[in-house]
Amino acid sequence: MSSPLIELIGATKRFPSGSGSVHTAVRDLNLTVEPGEFAAVVGPTGCGKSTTLSLVSGLQPASAGQVRVNGEPVTSIPDGVGYMFQNDAVMPWRSVLDNVASGPRFRGMSKSEARRQAADWVGRVGLAGFEKYYLHQLSGGMRKRVALAQTLVTEPRIMLMDEPFSALDVQTRALMQDELLRLWSGSDAAVVFVTHDLEEAIALADKVVVLTSSPATVKDVFTIGLPRPRQVEELRLTEDFLRIYREVWESLRGEVEKARTKGTTDVA
Ligand SMILES: Nc1ncnc2c1ncn2[C@@H]1O[C@H](COP(=O)(O)OP(=O)(O)OP(=O)(O)O)[C@@H](O)[C@H]1O
């Protein structure tokens, strides 16, 4: 049997903290993600969600356990990984087109081919006509579309997304969620999507992974059998969605309460 595209086996991450002690951010975490699967990761604030992503991206080596991508141990940033974070990695001094072309250029593609592919993706994210604009001329939602095109233009096999839409207003956020689902559905990419927002997690994902309060380990994994294609705003009103929400929240709530007791003030 072939191994999953992403595999964390007993993954643990410790960071040095003050006075020579060690802080365990992630402990004995097991997780698999298959090609074409959309996994959302939720957990209390500060529990270790971003650290979990950084293990998959190779930005942080595991202190113990194994992290594999495509069956190979992760020792550096694996090929075929695209990122999208809360703060976009867009360059304000470059036009929309050149921002999107920068990834393929960095990977050695000729300027003309990179721009051709970038123009295609700018169109696919709904920004045709804005190729020559600079970032300050765009709304927050449009900048997010640029970031999405930047991520997708390299046709990643794995998309690591860390609260990419959390800075957007509610309506723009829903639009971007739909947009992400539409674009991802045409690919075979595996997605790991970290969010504080349980509704977002359920609306987008095939499975929702609930992490414990710090240190993060997997508490529960919920399969989300809601049919696709999905329109997130309509989906949220359905009985099935609310039933799943109650079920997952039941699991998450205990961890949020534990985190609060430990002194964390924000909620998942
Ligand atoms: N590079 C680092 N060095 C030291 N400690 C770190 C480092 N990165 C993360 N941590 C610690 O690990 C813990 C988990 O952080 P992480 O950012 O993974 O949590 P999170 O669940 O993504 O947080 P949030 O919900 O606020 O986004 C925190 O206590 C954090 O301070």
TrEMBL record:
InterPro entries: AAA+_ATPase, ABC_transporter-like_ATP-bd, ABC_transporter-like_CS, ABC_transporter_ATP-bind, P-loop_NTPase. This is ATP-binding cassette domain-containing protein. The keyword Transport applies. Residues 6-238 form the ABC transporter domain. GO terms for molecular function: ATP binding; ATP hydrolysis activity. It holds the Pfam family ABC_tran. It comes from Amycolatopsis pithecellobii. CDD domains: ABC_NrtD_SsuB_transporters. Keywords: ATP-binding, Nucleotide-binding, Transport. It comes from the Bacteria.
